[in-house]
Please model this.
Amino acid sequence: MKVLIVGSGGREHAIAASVAKSSKVDKIYCAPGNAGIAGLAECVPIGAMEFDKLTAFAKEKAIDLTIVGMDDPLVGGLVDVMEAEGLRVFGPRKNAAILEGSKAFSKELMKKYNIPTAAYETFDDAKAATEYLKGAKMPIVLKADGLALGKGVLICNTLEEALDGVKSIMEDKKFGDAGNRMVVEEFMTGREVSVLSFVDGKTIKIMSSAQDHKRANDGDKGPNTGGMGTFSPSPFYTQEVDDFCKKHIYQATVDAMAAEGRSFKGVIFFGLMLTEQGPKVLEYNARFGDPEAQVVLPRMKNDIIDVVEACIDGTLDKIDLQFEDNAAVCVILASDGYPISYEKGFPIRGLEAFDNKEGYYCFHAGTKLDNGNIVTNGGRVLGVTATGVTLKEARSNAYEATKWVDFDNKYMRNDIGNSIN
Ligand code: AMP
Ligand code: GLY
Model:
C-alpha cells in the first residue's frame, strides 16, 4: 500500500521509520518532510496546512492511507477535508481535535465528566482576569486557550508576574489569536508523565509511558521549548498510577468525547502530573508527542499499519498492543540559542554513523538538503535515540551516539533521564 505522512519534524521521522518496517507498505510519501525523512519516503513540497493540495495529491497518487502527525492541520480540519473526498486518514476530525485545540474546551470537558485536573477559571477579557487574579493564591498558571507551539503556558510566582502575563497573552497577543481566551489554573506540583494512546472512537489502548524534558537548560532551567529530550518507560508510571488512570482518566475521556458527539479516532496524548492527591491531567494533545514518539514508537512491537487501520475501522479491541521490555532515551541536538534566537544553514557531519546500527536512531527535525548537503534548518535539529536493556544503559548509549554527529552551534542538555538513576 501507499502511505502519505503529513508533517516535517522528528515525530514524523519516527512515524515514517515505523511505517517503513511494515511489510504491507510499498511506498511512503511525506509532505513536506525533511532531509532525514527523505531517506525513507519521497518528500513532496506541500505544506501541512495546504489542505486542497494534500487532498489532490493523495487522490492523484491513489494513497491508501494518510497519517497526520502535526497538531495544526488536525485542529484545522484536514481529516474532514480528506475524508469528504473518500480518502482514508488517521487522526481526529476537527470536532474531536478541539481536545487539544482549545484548553477552555478540554477543561470544561474534564469538569463535566469528573476527570481529575487542576481547578480553573476561563476568561474572555483581560479586565475580569485581572480582578480574579488579585484575589488568587500564587503561584498560578495562565494558559492561552489555543495552539501556541507548546509555549502558551505561563507559571506566575507573584501577582505582578500574573498581571504581566495577562497583558502579554490577552492584550499584546504574544501567542496570537490563541490568547483571545485564557484559562487560569491552580498550580500543581509533582512528576510529569506523557502517556500516548491509540483510540478508535470507543476503545483505547495505552502505549508505554514516557517523560519529556521541556526546559531548554540542564536542571530544568531556562525557557520552555517543544521538548529537549525524552525517555521511555517512566519508572514513576507505576502499576498503581496505571490502575488509577484506567479507572478515572483514559476511558472516561474517550467516553466523554463520544457522549459530546465528538467521537475521537487517532492518538490521544495525556500530559499527566502525579500529584499528592493522585494523577491529574495537565493537558491533552490530539497526536503523538514530539519527542515522545521518538522513544515510544521504536519500542512498539506491533505493525503500526495494523494499529492505525484498526483505529480507523473501529476494531482496536482486536489489537494486542505490545512494547519491547527495554528502554529508550532521546536527546535533542538543537541549535544554540533555541527557542529564542539561533542561526541555521550549517552542514551536519557524521550522520552515516547511524546506518544499520540496530538500537540507534537519528531522527531529523530541522534539517534540509542544500546542494546535496544536509544542513541545519531549525531550532530542534536532530533527535538521537538509543535503546538499552535498562534506562541507564539507554541513556549511556544515547549520549555516546550524540558524539557521532556534529554541526556548528550544536547544543544539547546533558541530563536527559538523569532523574532515573
Ligand atoms: P501544557 O502545555 O499545558 O502541558 O503546559 C506546559 C508545562 O507547564 C507542563 O508540562 C507543566 O510543566 C507546566 N504546567 C502546566 N499546567 C500546570 C499546572 N496547573 N501546574 C503546574 N505546572 C503546570
Ligand atoms: N513533547 C510535548 C509535545 O509534543 O507536546
